[in-house]
């Protein structure tokens, strides 16, 4: 599996409201390509919504202008959106990747209010996952200790999180031959 430097953790400095849209995501969209079951500690970056523009703000004041999120240096999301980590499962997911039409620009949308200090993590919306042939579901099995595990039905590799399995099948499994996730019902 491809590896890279430890991921930068992007977290909210103040509340990010549900439904807020970030983006568009620049470049080639490969969300999850470097997803791992492990969390490697790395540098942290804080972002916050701009809440207005009164012209007399201190550098640390939180501001929102036309719904745009900015980092501590005032940089727009276009400069740091690709640093947001892929969510390993729905419990840690705060954002979803969406497109207004198939093949259109991709944005991240807050699924719920994101609280101060909470990390921003993202995964595909179901329509976008289908567009990219990313698996939508993963059914867990239980190991000998009773813990949930997700097994690749092509190569039998085991994963702790469902999105790690989905990313593996789409980006890395040599035995899947690029076949999309076959929809298995529970």
Automatic annotation (TrEMBL):
- Known PANTHER family for this protein? AGAP007109-PA, C2H2-TYPE DOMAIN-CONTAINING PROTEIN
**Domain SET residue range list:** 1-125
Question: By what name is this protein known?
Answer: PRD13 protein
Task: List GO terms (cellular component aspect).
Answer: nucleus
Keyword terms of this UniProt record? Metal-binding, Nucleus, Zinc, Zinc-finger
Write out the GO MF terms. zinc ion binding
Domain of life here? Eukaryota
Keyword Nucleus assigned to the entry: answer is: yes
C2H2-type domain residues are 150-172
- Kindly state a single biological-process term from the GO annotations of this entry: regulation of DNA-templated transcription
Source gene? Prdm13
Main location group: nucleus
